[in-house]
Amino acid sequence: MSTEVDTVEKQRYDIAAIRAQFPILKEQVHGRPLVYFDNAATSQKPRRVIKAESAYYATINANVHRGVHTLSTLATEAQEGAREVIRRHINAQHAHELIFTSGTTAAINLAASSLGQLLLQPGDEVLISGMEHHSNIVPWQLACERHGAVLKVIPITDSGEWDLRAANETISQLANCRMLAVAHVSNTLGTINPVKELIAGAKERGIVTVIDGAQAIAHLDVDVQDLGCDLYAFSGHKAYASTGIGVLYGREELLERMPPWQGGGEMIDQVTLEKSTWAKLPFKFEAGTPHIAGIIGMGEAIRWMEDYDKAAMAKHEHLLLEHATQELLTIDGLRIIGTAKEKVGVISFVIEGVHHYDLGTLLDQQGIAVRTGHHCTQPLMERFGISGTTRASFAPFNTIEEVDAMIAAAKKAVKMLR
Amino acid sequence: MTLDQAQQELIDEFALFTDWQDRYEHLIELGRDLPLITPEHKVEGNLVRGCQSRVWLHAQPLSPSAPLGVARVVRFTADSDAMITKGIVALLVRVYNDRTPDEILSGSTDFIDKIGLREHLSPNRANGLSAMLDQMKRYALAFSG
C-alpha cells in the first residue's frame, strides 16, 4: 500500500521507497520475511545513518575538542554540527543546552542525581506517574533515598492515562514538591500525555519539570520551548540512530546551577589536586570521550526524519494502529491494555488463557517480532493486575499487510495454545 | 536408560517433525505430561529466577532411607504459567528425573539444540532454560553426599 501526502519540500510518503532505505527489512527470520513490530524497544536504522557512522570511522575518526590536527577539527565540527541539527529539531534556544549522554536512562540518572543534590531536602517530594518506565522511577527513588525525600505518584485511569485534573489535584496536595518527572509518551501503552498543561501547572508552583521523551521523539514534533519543560531526555536508538547515544536537554539557567554528575576529562576548566573548576556548558556534563560516531549518526537520523512530513508518518502509524486495534479485537478473549484517545502506534494486549511469552515465541516462529513481558513498567502491570502484555509498536515502514500477517499468526498461535 | 539414551530418545522423537508448528505442538504436549508440582510446593520459594514466565520447581530424594552403597536418585516436579516454558521444563525433567545427583551435576542443555529448539538456548531466553538446570543442579548438590 502507499499513502501519498501533498507537500512541497518534503518527500512523498512512498512506503516502498521508505522500506528500501532499511537494509534489515530484507532479512528473514525462521525462513520468513521479517515483520518488525518492536520499534518502541529500538527502531531500525536507515542506510543513511549506517553510512554516516561508518564514514566517520573511515574518514575523520579522531578525538574531539582537544586535538590541534585536522582530523580532530573535522570530527569536532561533525559532532557539533549534529548538536546543532538536534537543537533545531527540538527548538532549544542554545546548542549548549543539549548534553550528550549514553541514552535516556543516563540522561534521567544525570537529572535525578544532579537535581537531587541541588534541590532535595529531607521531607521534600518528587512526583512521577504510575505509567513510568523503570528508568524514570528508579533514579528518582535513589535520589529520594539519598536526600530523605519522598516519591509520590500520579494515579493512572483504566484507559491508561493520567487525568489532567486529577494530576493537578495530586500536585496541589503536596506541600514540598520540588520535581515532576513524567513520560511524554508511555512505552507500554502508547498514551500521549498532556505534558504541556501539566508542566504549566507545576511551574506555577516552582516545581522543576523533567520529561522522559524516549518514546516521543520518533513520533511527535517535540518543541521544548513550547512545552516549557526544564529538562527533556531522549535516546537516539528509538529514533533511527545508534544505541549508546542520547540527549538531556536542559534550560541554560538551570543547567548552570546544577552540579556535575560524573567527573573526568572534557568536563573541567582547571584541575589542581585540591580542587577542580568546571568547563562551560555543555561540557560540564560530558565527562570522557563522547560517542562521536553515535552523535553524528543521531544528527543524520534527525535529518532523515526531517526529510519527511512527520504528520504524514504519524498518520500512517495511526492507520496501522486503528487497523491492528480493530482486527486484534476479533480474537476471542483479547483485551487491549491502554485505550487512551491520544496514542502513538503502540498496542499492548493480553489474551485470556494465553501467556504473553508463549504468544511472543510462536509469533517469532512466524517471523514476527513483538515484545512481551512487563516492558520495564512493573508498577503499571500491577495497576492493571497483569504480569505482562504482548506489545506491537509500529514504524513508518510497516504496512497494513504486515499487521494482517501478525493477526493471522496470532490466531494460529492461540489455536495451538488453547 | 542412561542419561545419553534419554537425551537421544528426545532427539529422535523431535526428528520426526519437519516444521516449527509440529515441533511446538509436541513441546506443548510434553508440557501437559509434566509431573506437576503439588500445591503446597507451588510457592514463591520454589520459583526459578530469571524466566519471563513463572516456573516452579521442586525436588525430593527418592528412597532417602536407602542403605549405604545404594545410589539415591532425585525426583523433580514442576509447573509453569506458560505452556512453552512448561514444555521446556518437561524436557529437562524427562531427562534428569530419577537420576543420581552426580548424573544431574554433569548435565548440560546441549540436547535442546539438537531437537531444533535452539532459540531457547540464546542468552536472551536461556536465562530461563539455564536457570532451570542450575536450580536442578542445586537440588542435586543438596542431596548428594
Describe the fold and architecture.
The complex is a heterodimer of chains A (418) and B (145). Chain A has helices at residues 15-20, 47-60, 70-90, 104-119, 138-147, 164-172, 195-204, 224-227, 252-257, 292-306, 310-328, 356-365, 378-384, 400-417, and strands spanning 28-29, 32-33, 35-36, 98-101, 125-129, 150-154, 177-183, 208-212, 231-235, 246-250, 268-271, 276-278, 334-337, 346-351, 368-369, 371-373, 389-393. Chain A is α/β, with parallel strands linked by helices. Chain A folds into 2 domains: 15-33 and 309-417, Aspartate Aminotransferase, domain 1 (Alpha-Beta Complex), CATH 3.90.1150; 51-306, Aspartate Aminotransferase, domain 2 (3-Layer(aba) Sandwich). In chain A, helix 7 links the parallel strand 7 (177-183) and strand 8. Chain A starts with 14 loop residues before the first helix and ends with a helix. Chain B has one domain (3-143): Sufe protein. Chain: A. Chain B has 6 helices and 2 strands, in the order ααββαααα. Chains A and B meet through helix 12 and helix 14 of A and helix 2 and helix 3 of B.
In short:
The complex is a heterodimer of chains A (418) and B (145). With 418 residues, chain A is of the alpha/beta class.
What CATH calls the topology of chain B is: Sufe protein. Chain: A
> Quick one: overall form of chain A?
globular
Could you tell me the strand content of chain B as a percent range?
A: 5-15%
Helix content of chain B: 40-55%
Major sheet strand order of chain A = 4-10-9-8-7-5-6
C-alpha end-to-end distance of chain A: 34 Å
How much of the sequence of chain A is in beta strands? 15-25%
Instruction: Give the second-level CATH assignment, the architecture of the largest domain in chain A.
Output: 3-Layer(aba) Sandwich
Number of helices of chain B: 6
Q: What's the number of helices of chain A?
A: 14
What is the subunit organization of this protein? heterodimer
